[in-house]
Write a structure and sequence with these properties.
The chain has helices at about 10-15, 25-45, 45-65, 70-75, 80-90, 200-205, and strands at about 125-135, 145-150, 170-175, 180-185, 190, 210, 215-220, 230-235, 255, 255-260, 260-265, 270, 275-280, 280-285. The radius of gyration is 22 Å and the shape is globular. Strands 1, 4, 10, 13 and 14 form a 5-stranded mixed sheet that branches. Strands 3-2-7-8-9 form a 5-stranded mixed sheet, with no helix packed on it. Strands 5-6 form a two-stranded antiparallel sheet. The model has no long low-confidence stretch (mean pLDDT about 95). It has 2 domains: about 10-45; about 75-285, Protocatechuate 3,4-Dioxygenase, subunit A. The protein is about 25% helix and about 20% strand. The protein is an alpha+beta fold and about 290 residues long. A hairpin with a 6-residue loop joins strand 7 (about 215-220) and strand 8. It binds fe (ii) ion. The site of fe (ii) ion has 5 residues, from strand 7.
Length: about 290
Amino acid sequence: MRNLDENTITEAVLARHAHAGDERLKTIVTSLVQHLHAFAREVNLTESEWEQGIRFLTDVGHITDDKRQEFILLSDTLGLSMLVTAMANRKPPGCTEATVFGPFFVEGAPAYQNGDDVSNGARGEPCFVSGTVKGADGEAVANARIEVWQADADGFYDVQHAGDDTHRARGVLHSLADGRYHFRSIVAEPYPIPHDGPVGRMLAALGRHPWRPAHLHFMIMAPGYERLVTHVFREGDQYLDSDAVFGVRSSLVAQWQRHEAGTAPDGTSMTMPFSTLEFDFVLNPSA
Ligand SMILES: [Fe+2]
């Protein structure tokens, strides 16, 4: 196989995969090669542009470590994460919609009981979160595993604070027998995705801002139901219609009610203003 040119190279590459053992892998790589080649032809990609592309991807790799996940940021900001999420989560009406996982989930979040303060010292105005986990037919889902994680008042997740490995504003709790859950945390604030790296430079070059509207992340799992990975967004946030990662669904936007100092929902006497958020999750039964 010699003398390949710009018209014959694509078929030659695909032919080389004829004996791939994994059919699904073959399907994916075949399509990827076809689209990559079509893309290069469509924009008439120059050698210096491709070198720039390689440098960009190299930078994305170099800045990525166990705490900074630039590849997820890249996928998120190009809309690929939300596309994959949307295709994987075609749920019946009434079920809570899914959205992007994001780059700030970490394994090993601390376990909490209902009523505990998951902020664990993270900076922010207190917020009391409660609701019910239900199934699609309205049945309460008891003992659902609820994992929550969020940014602090400065717009940072715990993992972004260098030199401090304490888990803050993230935790795992379980719904009660009647499906209810409640915990204390802090008010979610909007934050820019990390934009001091190659993805940030890409956004700036494209005239895009890096901001995400305020949200809480949730991952909810219960036997007999599909896993739900989603956010709850704060009504009124200025970035709801320009989320840097395209994750906002109207059904996931909720009111944070602000209260002056007084008695909190759990009976705590609050000497400072606080907020409350009530949000019910509806899980889709497993197929
Ligand atoms: Fe987030």
